[in-house]
């Protein structure tokens, strides 16, 4: 069967909403799905997005059905009008009428929305995203509801709580002499540092988190909200224009430290498939198994014996990622878990523990759930598992670790995961998370210094939902925020994302990095209806194999002139310099190679995938440049 090019790239034939550029003078924006992205002034990003969003009670996104769309382009500006219908999981409807007025120095986004019956939501209304690059650590003015003005800076390190509350307007410098003011009406707004979730933005949103949620929008009551962006120019403003595509240059820094060993996650709910494919662990070169164990989910002796079986077949060291129920005396609970471990015969290389209540997030303004002091949990774990290196942190995301910072003095390492589809699941947003991921690892190092550091399992799909009752189902392979299954993991996009993730965190020198499970929707093995034949390795398997091979080398830091387009890392091992590069875009990118010598190129691209995705072959590469096709991953060995 012939499959489409987009399916090879993304693992799905679902089309993203088509973006339409709207313009007025030097001010422009991309309109898609009822919202605005990448608001630019002469090509310079001013705001990342202005969106009207509706979340269900579990923070899942209610998709908009757009109708009655009109776009009027005139000499002085552009006016967009449309209607949108949002449907909650219980079938309630929210109808919205929206207007966007774009002029050369002003943009107004206005929305009026009415539910047909009581509508339960965690949030309904506007969200405005300020970019991170060029904005983090820079001055900002915040006007509050009483008219007072707060002069501050956007957070540099990631702020765990809201940096600004009670916001009527935000003003920041786009470039010298050019200011952008964003003014809000219709609700109380506050800002959160979305880098906590690896979103590449600061988000200003309606309805403070300290208010109860979910809440009800009353039947047939209309709510009115608006956002107004104004551009102000003073003095001699610097001119800037949108640049065309240029060749990407690489800058290498040798002897940049060490690379992490690679881990693979195991989960009891995929035991049968994991046992069938345990041999892949040796092939991929994984050193560690990160085994998820949760007594509250019914995990017990049989699951520990399964972990032992996979460990014996692979030779991998075992880390047990263990939730502690904290419902009985800690010595009793952890002693029972230790007894099960002894009965299973599994030998632990390390143990990470977390109280069960910390599987759910505690948002700002909420009451923290009852929980024994972490110091007591760690002491009980050390008593039950003497001599086993003990880790602590969060099995969810950096957000939770940033808000509940663990006492690390007695720990052998700290750990957390990340997830790129907590708030948005479009292709651009997922790849933009690397802008924030750099700051996540930088913030961890600022908090915990040189403490050994482990990351993962981190995958595109969401392993658990700390913000609601469950992850979202995705039976049709779409791009869905908070989904437990994401089709891009199966395709070239997933391989490029995995390589870029490793490149982005490399400066923090984690000792262990886990970016896949063995089996299941976030695993190494393809299922039915994927770009790779069922039962064979997915494209990211080969990226993980490359990373594992380089883990014993001396790291080479790779900086690119367009990090939003191409990411890379490298290593020197056995007198060979190896560079790994990933194209983060759907467009071909030309990369200039910086080092001379005999080069061999191994390429994971759509041609390789269409030809059957066998073991990729290295070929001689004479050119000083490399054309990276859409979402391709490349290995360049310089002999």
From TrEMBL:
<dbReference type="Pfam" id="PF25839">
    <property type="entry name" value="Apionate_lact_C"/>
</dbReference>
<keyword id="KW-0614">Plasmid</keyword>
<dbReference type="Pfam" id="PF25837">
    <property type="entry name" value="Apionate_lact_N"/>
</dbReference>
<dbReference type="Pfam" id="PF25838">
    <property type="entry name" value="Apionate_lact_M"/>
</dbReference>
<dbReference type="InterPro" id="IPR058788">
    <property type="entry name" value="ApnL_N"/>
</dbReference>
<feature type="domain" description="D-apionate lactonase C-terminal">
    <location>
        <begin position="563"/>
        <end position="636"/>
    </location>
</feature>
<feature type="domain" description="D-apionate lactonase N-terminal">
    <location>
        <begin position="9"/>
        <end position="232"/>
    </location>
</feature>
<dbReference type="InterPro" id="IPR058787">
    <property type="entry name" value="ApnL_M"/>
</dbReference>
<dbReference type="InterPro" id="IPR058789">
    <property type="entry name" value="ApnL_C"/>
</dbReference>
<protein>
    <submittedName>
        <fullName>Uncharacterized protein</fullName>
    </submittedName>
</protein>
<feature type="domain" description="D-apionate lactonase TIM barrel">
    <location>
        <begin position="262"/>
        <end position="551"/>
    </location>
</feature>
């Amino acid at each position: 069967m012939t499959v489409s090019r987009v399916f090879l790239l993304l693992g799905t034939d679902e089309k993203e909403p088509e973006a339409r550029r709207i313009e007025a003078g030097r001010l422009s924006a991309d309109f898609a799905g009822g919202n605005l992205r990448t608001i630019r002034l002469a090509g310079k990003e001013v705001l990342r997005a202005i969106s009207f969003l509706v979340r269900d009670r579990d923070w899942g996104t209610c998709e908009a059905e757009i109708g009655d769309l009109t776009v009027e382009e005139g000499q002085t500006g552009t006016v967009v009008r449309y209607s949108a219908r949002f449907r909650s999981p219980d079938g309630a409807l929210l109808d919205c009428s929206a207007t966007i007025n774009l002029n050369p120095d002003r943009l107004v986004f206005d929305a009026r929305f009415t539910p047909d019956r009581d509508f339960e939501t965690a949030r309904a209304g506007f969200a405005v995203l300020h970019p991170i690059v060029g904005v983090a650590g820079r001055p900002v003015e915040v006007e509050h509801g009483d008219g007072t003005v707060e002069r501050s800076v956007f957070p540099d390190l990631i702020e765990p709580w809201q940096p600004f509350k009670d916001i009527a307007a935000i003003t920041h410098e786009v470039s010298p002499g050019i200011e952008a003011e964003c003014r809000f009406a219709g609700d109380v707004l506050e800002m959160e540092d979305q880098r906590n979730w690896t979103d590449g933005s600061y988000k200003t949103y309606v309805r403070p988190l300290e208010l109860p949620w979910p809440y009800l929008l009353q039947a047939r009551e209309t709510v009115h909200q608006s956002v107004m962006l104004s551009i102000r120019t003073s003095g001699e403003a610097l001119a800037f224009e949108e640049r065309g595509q240029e060749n990407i240059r690489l800058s290498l820094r040798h002897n940049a430290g060490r690379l992490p060993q690679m881990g693979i996650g195991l989960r009891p709910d995929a035991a049968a498939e994991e046992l069938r494919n345990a041999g892949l662990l040796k092939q991929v070169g994984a050193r560690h198994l990160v085994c998820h164990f949760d007594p509250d989910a019914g995990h017990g002796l049989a699951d520990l014996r399964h972990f032992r079986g996979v460990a014996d077949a692979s030779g991998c060291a075992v880390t047990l990622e263990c939730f502690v129920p904290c419902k009985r005396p800690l010595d009793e609970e952890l002693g029972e878990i230790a007894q099960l471990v002894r009965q299973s015969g599994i030998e632990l290389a390390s143990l990470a523990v977390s109280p069960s209540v910390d599987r759910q997030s505690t948002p700002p303004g909420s009451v923290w759930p009852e929980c024994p002091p972490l110091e007591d949990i760690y002491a009980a774990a050390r008593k039950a598992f003497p001599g086993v290196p003990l880790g602590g942190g969060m099995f969810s995301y950096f957000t939770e670790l940033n808000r509940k910072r663990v006492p690390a003095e007695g720990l052998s390492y700290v750990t957390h995961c990340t997830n790129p589809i907590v708030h948005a699941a479009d292709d651009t947003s997922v790849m933009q998370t690397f802008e924030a991921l750099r700051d996540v690892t930088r913030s961890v190092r600022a908090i915990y210094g040189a403490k050994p550091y482990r990351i993962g399992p981190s995958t595109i799909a969401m392993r658990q939902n700390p913000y609601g009752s469950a992850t979202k189902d995705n039976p049709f392979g779409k791009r869905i925020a908070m989904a437990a299954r994401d089709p891009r993991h199966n395709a070239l996009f997933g391989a490029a994302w995995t390589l870029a993730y490793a490149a982005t965190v490399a400066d923090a020198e984690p000792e262990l990095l886990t970016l896949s499970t063995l089996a299941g929707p976030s695993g190494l093995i393809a299922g039915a209806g994927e770009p790779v034949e069922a039962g064979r390795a997915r494209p990211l398997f080969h990226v993980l194999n490359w990373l594992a091979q380089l883990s014993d080398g001396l790291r080479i830091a790779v900086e690119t002139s367009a990090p939003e387009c191409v990411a890379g890392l490298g290593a020197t091992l056995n007198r060979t310099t190896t560079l790994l590069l990933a194209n983060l875009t759907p467009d071909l990118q030309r990369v200039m190679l910086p080092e001379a010598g005999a080069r061999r190129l191994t390429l994971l691209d759509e041609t390789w995938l269409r030809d059957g995705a066998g073991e990729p072959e290295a070929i001689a590469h004479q050119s000083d440049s490399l054309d990276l096709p859409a979402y391709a991953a490349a290995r360049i060995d310089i002999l």
